[in-house]
Amino acid sequence: MSNWVLILGASTGHGGATAVRLAKDGYGIIGFHFDRGEMKAEAEQTITKVAELNDGRCHYWNTNAAAEKTMDKFIPEIKKITEGKSLKLLLHSIAFGTTTNFFGDNPVTQRQMDMTVHVMGNSLLYWAQRLYKEGLLGQGSRVLGLTSEGNYIAMDGYGPVSVAKVAMEAIIRQIGWELGEYGITANAVQAGITPTRALTKITDKWETWVENTKKRNPMRRTTTPEDIANTISLLLRPEADFINCSIIYCDGGEHRSGSF
Question: Is 104 helix (H, G, I), strand (E, B) or coil?
Fold first, then answer.
């Protein structure tokens, strides 16, 4: 087992915060992000911080992590970085897809739906398959994906992403069920409403969502990327070896507090 982690979507939001936290924990960070313009500058800030925290033990690539050619090109590079040892973590934190309704003035198209489900759901499976085949997932490895309560609540504009999240959760259960005997676990972490760039892409009413969440959340605040990063840090400990095929809620009890 190496002390390297692989994060798909490692520049901002939950993935960026997790990269920073795990760098503090002493892990080497291998990250993919897909940023342009102003967001590229923000990504560079995260990369610089990670490198400062773990003495430069970080490798970031700015490319589409959901593309098959990316997996084929970079998995051999990842294997060189870890010297053939299995990763401690494969985290799927890609937040890129179509946010629109199924019906109305701008209904989702088949192309948009297929892209969203692939990028935010199915791509986790294809990464896990290739990494496992190359011996980069082994005893003690964790496979984690990020989900939300949109996986069971219908929300304006969230339909395509909701389908992707449900697909990802099913993939995670099956990975954990099939690979559990080899000491590889797979779980989803469910965050509450978090004021990130991804939230602003879901709805133009995101500020209202945030304020309503503060009222309904038992802890009277929204989830932060650091909350998720801390939870993932805990799940990498040996004490979490028997947690598998599960959804871990990190939302202050928000999912128990009714709809917003």
Answer: coil
Closest Cα partner for 88 from 12, 144, 16? 144
Contacts of 29 (CB under 8 A, 6+ apart): 4, 5, 7, 10, 19, 22, 23, 50, 54, 57, 58, 59, 60
Read off the amino acid at residue 122: N
Q: In the structure encoding, which two tokens stand for residue 61, read together?
A: 């690539």
Q: What is the pTM of this model?
A: 0.94
Asked if residue 158 has pLDDT above 80, the reply is yes
- For residue 15, the tally of other CB atoms under 10 A from its CB is 27
pLDDT score for 230: 98
The domain segmentation of the chain, as residue ranges, is 4-256
Q: Name the fold adopted by 4-256.
A: Rossmann fold (3.40.50)
Question: The sheet that has 246-250: what strands, in order across it?
Answer: 58-62, 28-33, 4-8, 89-92, 142-147, 185-191, 246-250
Q: Are 249 and 190 in contact (CB under 8 A)?
A: yes
Rg (alpha carbons) of the chain, rounded to whole number: 17
- Residue 160, Cβ neighbours under 10 Å: how many? 23
Q: Which residue has the tokens 């996986």?
A: 151
Query: Taking the mean position of all CA atoms in its chain, how far away is CA 23?
Result: 16
Treating both helix axes as pointing N-terminal to C-terminal, what angle do 37-53 and 13-24 enclose, rounded to 10 degrees? 20
